[in-house]
């Protein structure tokens, strides 16, 4: 007789396998081009099986996004752990974001869709299931916002960063700038260096230099 713990473990393994398969389908077809039947076909199941683990397409999409968000959060954490004592951490955070975006461009695409469609940045419903994929995505997004905000606050307190904005306000501006730059890099990735006379990494470093100068003047 299979124990309850063993059965739960097997169900979780099957669910994670479905997320991996769904991830490949979303990466290939994008959010709009992905359907539950396509995921079911790729997994070798019927659509009813998917509903045993996920409520709908949004739910399985958010399960995939969660993997990307967790990977990005870990990259940002590692960047701060390695940060030199004299810095604010912003340059290291920016470099970590750049590397993650270049190494995992499909995740970046899906995270941007999540940010624009599903992320709730204020006055969230307290009754939301804390274990839902949406709430777990929200929690990771909040963690990253706190990481960046804390780095900014540290820099301001030490006098290394100057701004009329609050740390949280500045975090939002910098987050938007970096997302925007990486989105442009993603859209124009083909023949980038030939077209602009500079590689993406080198241009990104110039961008970070400009931001740093504007905050230390």
UniProtKB/TrEMBL annotation:
<keyword id="KW-0805">Transcription regulation</keyword>
<dbReference type="Pfam" id="PF00440">
    <property type="entry name" value="TetR_N"/>
</dbReference>
<dbReference type="InterPro" id="IPR036271">
    <property type="entry name" value="Tet_transcr_reg_TetR-rel_C_sf"/>
</dbReference>
<protein>
    <recommendedName>
        <fullName>HTH tetR-type domain-containing protein</fullName>
    </recommendedName>
</protein>
<keyword id="KW-0804">Transcription</keyword>
<feature type="domain" description="HTH tetR-type">
    <location>
        <begin position="12"/>
        <end position="72"/>
    </location>
</feature>
<keyword id="KW-0238">DNA-binding</keyword>
<dbReference type="InterPro" id="IPR050109">
    <property type="entry name" value="HTH-type_TetR-like_transc_reg"/>
</dbReference>
<feature type="DNA-binding region" description="H-T-H motif">
    <location>
        <begin position="35"/>
        <end position="54"/>
    </location>
</feature>
<dbReference type="InterPro" id="IPR001647">
    <property type="entry name" value="HTH_TetR"/>
</dbReference>
<dbReference type="GO" id="GO:0000976">
    <property type="term" value="F:transcription cis-regulatory region binding"/>
</dbReference>
<dbReference type="InterPro" id="IPR009057">
    <property type="entry name" value="Homeodomain-like_sf"/>
</dbReference>
<dbReference type="GO" id="GO:0003700">
    <property type="term" value="F:DNA-binding transcription factor activity"/>
</dbReference>
């Amino acid at each position: 007789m299979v124990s309850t713990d063993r059965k739960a473990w097997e169900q979780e393994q099957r669910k994670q396998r479905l997320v991996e398969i769904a991830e490949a389908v979303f990466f290939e077809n994008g959010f709009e081009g992905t359907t539950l039947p396509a995921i079911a076909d790729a997994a070798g199941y019927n659509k009813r099986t998917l509903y045993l683990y996920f409520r709908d397409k949004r739910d399985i999409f958010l399960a995939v996004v969660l993997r990307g968000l967790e990977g990005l959060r870990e990259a940002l954490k590692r960047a701060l752990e390695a940060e030199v004592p004299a810095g604010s951490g912003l340059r290291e955070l920016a470099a970590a974001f750049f590397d993650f975006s270049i190494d995992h461009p499909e995740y970046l695409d899906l995270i941007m869709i999540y940010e624009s469609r599903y992320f709730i940045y204020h006055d969230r419903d307290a009754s939301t299931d804390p274990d839902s994929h949406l709430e777990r995505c929200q929690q990771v997004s909040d963690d990253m916002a706190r990481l960046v905000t804390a780095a900014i606050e540290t820099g301001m307190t030490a006098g290394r960063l100057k701004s009329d904005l609050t740390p949280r306000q500045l975090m939002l501006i910098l987050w938007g700038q970096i997302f925007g730059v990486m989105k442009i890099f993603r859209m124009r990735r083909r023949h980038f260096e030939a077209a602009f006379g500079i590689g993406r990494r080198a241009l990104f470093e110039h961008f970070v230099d400009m931001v740093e100068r504007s905050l230390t003047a």
